[in-house]
Amino acid sequence: MSGSGDPQEAAQPGAGEVTATVIVNAPAERVYAAFTAWERQSDWIPFTTVRVIEGDGGEGSLIEAVTAVGPAVLRDRMRVARLDPPYEVQVVHLGRVLRGPGVLRCTQMEHDRTQVVWHEWFHLPGGVAGRVAWPVMWPGSKVSLTRALKKFGRLVETGALP
Q1: N or C: more exposed end of the chain, with fewer CB within 10 A?
Q2: What is the pTM of this model?
Q3: What are the distances in angstroms from CA 96 to CA 31, 62, 121?
Q4: What does the pLDDT look like over 26-72, one tens digit per residue?
């Protein structure tokens, strides 16, 4: 298995949690298809290029998201752990900085609307210092995740995704 460290350890929830929720005016099948169009995530996650580096994008595939802002680069490798169309996508982040499980859930609502909940449980780097810094970093992480998910929703609603 590619990635850094022990994949079994990475799959366990970490102490840092981030959740974002959005309602998308589209059926769950369309929302799910848009989310699992991995390389199109670059369209709605700022400064990020996403590609499938191993597999076909299905369960077991390795996805890499590279976020670059100026000279700062963050490489996020994640294994697709489980796909349950059109309801749930589970991944495990395998990097040194971003480690831990993540899940996206799609819940069909009335009138072809879908509630999307994106939840991540990160292992915090830096021991005690990381745990102390998390409350300061968390609001920015939640804001960024929510903004990206709202942009995702707009792209799905307009038919620009998948």
Answers
A1: N
A2: 0.82
A3: 30, 16, 14
A4: 999 999 999 999 999 999 998 899 999 999 999 999 999 998 888 88
Provide the token pair at 40. 């199109």
Confidence of residue 143 (pLDDT cuts 50, 70, 90): confident
Give CA torsion, residues 52, 57, 62, 63, to 10 deg: 50
b/e map 20-52, b = 16+ CB within 10 Å: bebebebbbebbbbbbbebebbebbbeebebee
Torsions phi, psi for 41 (to 5 deg) = -60, -25
Maximum distance among all Cα pairs of the chain, rounded to whole angstroms? 47
User: How far is the C-alpha of 94 from the C-alpha of 85, rounded, in Å?
Assistant: 23
* Lookup result for tokens 């309602």: 23
The answer to whether the beta carbons of residues 117 and 19 sit under 8 Å apart is: yes
H-only helix segments in the chain: 7-10, 28-35, 127-157
Contact 40, 48 (CB under 8 A): no
Only one residue has tokens 């996650």, namely: 45
